[in-house]
Design goal:
Oligomer: single chain
CATH architecture of the largest domain: Up-down Bundle
Structural class: mainly alpha
Radius of gyration: 21 Å
CATH class of the largest domain: Mainly Alpha
CATH topology of the largest domain: Growth Hormone, Chain: A
CATH superfamily of the largest domain: MFS general substrate transporter like domains
Largest sheet: none
């Protein structure tokens, strides 16, 4: 009699909890951590510095971590070690006082947390080379957990002191450690291609163009992330409707992840990134005119394409176009350059853009997507060959 659960399904059930635990931390931290930092006496600019610490870790440290993972040929082991370090370091928040102690902790933890997604994605995608593992359907549990964390955190914090926020996060880091322990391990052998892999990737013009194109599309969300709520409030939109608009985008993202194999089966990786850029060009051009709620509802539905399709295209590009021996380093550079340097730069500029241009700042984000489309058009015309 055939088993009720296939080996691939068993593997997927060991992978999904990792994303659930990781994004549960984000769901608690993104809306509520600034509240605790303010409670501890940090000013607005100090809070901004503390929150930016993981971004610097992503740019500088993630390529180093992923290079080590490629060198040892393991993915689960570094994740277990990093989750244990983060769990231990986080306990010091219960004794931290003042900006400098909190900043040093945030930077220290951020050096490791910035690499979790890159290594986790690479683990799933590497397993997917030999097994029928559907990355989007595993990744969607992260988005579901993010929504659940934000909602659950709000319910649990009602009537409690902000000192309960680090308790929630400490428990979440413990859960992440446990989920890393149950991840399957892989063993990637070394080869001549894998030697000096980071240098080879950085010196590849095609790969760097890919990173820039993907980063420009993800970075085009910057004005929405930093000033979207402010703009909607300026338009007189009620807080409940604003909350719905934010939730709608993530819900559509989850649906798209769930049916990605069916929707995008015939798309190449570059075509998926092109689709994300084209949707972004339309979305931000419309948002630049400060439309009303009916148009905003349609615009937010495009989040599933501007983020999810472009992200899936980037993941497939790394998997399809690069040798497995350098895949973790490629994932690390995607995290550091596309999601760190390029997107971080867009986030830094977005506040100034909104201050000077208000809703018209979205036109600059549309220009980001237009440039990404040109770069993707160039990549799509290149003959199929190894980037290294």
């Amino acid at each position: 009699m055939a088993p009720l659960i296939t080996f691939d399904q068993k593997t997927a059930m060991r992978l999904a909890p990792f994303y659930m635990a990781l994004f549960l931390i984000v769901g608690f931290q993104l809306p509520f951590w600034p509240v605790w930092l303010s409670y501890k006496g940090l000013s607005a600019d100090e809070i901004g510095i503390v929150l930016s610490a993981p971004v610097w870790g992503k740019i500088i440290f993630t390529p180093m971590i992923t290079s080590i993972a490629d060198y040892v040929g393991r993915r689960r082991a570094p994740l277990v070690v990093m989750s244990a370090i983060c769990l231990g370091l986080f306990q010091f928040y219960f004794f931290a006082e003042g900006f400098w102690q909190i900043f040093v902790l945030a930077l220290s933890i951020g050096l490791f947390t910035s690499s979790f997604t890159a290594l986790g994605d690479n683990l799933v995608l590497t397993i997917g080379r030999t097994q029928q593992i559907d990355y989007p359907r595993i990744r969607l549990w992260g988005s579901i957990s993010f929504i659940g964390g934000a909602f659950l955190g709000g319910q649990m914090l009602e009537g409690r002191s902000p000192d309960f926020i680090p308790v929630l996060l400490a428990l979440s880091y413990l859960l992440l450690f446990v989920c890393c322990l149950i991840l399957p391990e892989i063993n990637v052998g070394r080869s001549e291609t894998g030697k000096r892999g980071l240098r080879r990737l950085i010196s590849s013009p095609v790969f760097m163009i890919f990173l820039l194109a993907a980063g420009l599309i993800q970075g085009s969300h910057a004005v929405l992330y930093t000033s979207g709520t402010l703009q909607w409030q300026r338009q007189g939109i009620e807080d409940g409707t604003i909350g719905f608009l934010w939730a709608e985008g993530v819900i559509v993202e989850i649906i798209l992840f769930a049916f990605a194999r069916r929707f995008f089966k015939s798309f190449s990786p570059i075509q998926l990134i092109l689709l994300g850029g084209a949707a972004g060009l339309i979305r931000w051009a419309v948002m630049g005119f400060a439309p009303g709620v009916p148009v905003l509802i349609v615009s937010q539905m495009l989040h599933g394409v501007t983020f999810a399709a472009a992200h899936l295209g980037a993941m497939r590009y790394i998997t399809d176009e690069l040798p497995i021996e350098v895949s973790a380093r490629a994932q690390g550079l995607y995290s550091a350059i596309s999601l760190g340097l390029v997107m971080g730069g867009c986030l830094f500029l977005s506040g100034y853009l909104y201050e000077f241009f208000a809703s018209h700042a979205y036109f600059v984000m549309a220009a980001n997507c237009a440039i990404a489309l040109v770069l993707c058009g160039y990549l799509s015309r290149l003959p199929h060959r190894s980037l290294l």
